Amino acid sequence: MPECTDRFFIPPPSPTSETRTGEDDNLLPVYLEENGGLLLWSGDFPLPAIDSRVFVNVNNIGWALVKGYYASAGYLGVMTLPINPPMWLCEQWLEDKDSERPEWAKQGIGCEFGSELSLVEPAKSNGLQEVVLTLQYCLETFEATCQCEKCDPCRRGRRDIRRAISIVEEFCWPIDTPAGIQSPRFVLQRAGVKAEFDGLRTVIDFVRDFLPPSIVLHDSATRAEVAAMAARKHWTLVEKKGTTHAPQE
Ligand SMILES: [Zn+2]
Known about the structure:
249 residues; alpha+beta; binds zinc ion; single chain; three-stranded antiparallel β-sheet
């Protein structure tokens, strides 16, 4: 999600021998911009060259070609063109083609930080987690497309996707809930790790902790906004259905 202070298609920065300590107490290499500015690279491999292949680990994007570099909040990122984009992204491009987004975005170029990339395709340790991610993008696309609550996608479509998500989730991550105890309403998942929350507000507090200070996440953020922020650190936000809580919305 580009911020207005982000700079795109910057000249390729040069590596230095310096490092800085990042948010997760990891050492991040420092790159030098033409104008003398310093940018941190969060990848565990050197900044990839233009037109080289990288694997985008977020949003089901997969292999992509490096098309440029960008600077965001002191970090260096790459601008990539997916080689085999997922369906949700193709649909977004179609929706965006008349919008006021920059031309490169309409052409399908996206922005990722180094921590979201790798040089090899990660082992698909849990293929069903990918299925949940895909279904969540379908659901978010449905929700963003129409809110009339009357048409078929609003009623049957979203209900069916939610049901499919909960079937896969229960299969992958069954939650043992003792009788009489409310199950958590929100779960953040990534690579076999699961954090449970009883409300969106507590999720917001958790997510806010790992966001860089330049990014503001309001208390009133919607579920989709929180999910997008959580995705920056590879967390998938899941809303549990069928609990004793009052229904959402
Ligand atoms: Zn509708």
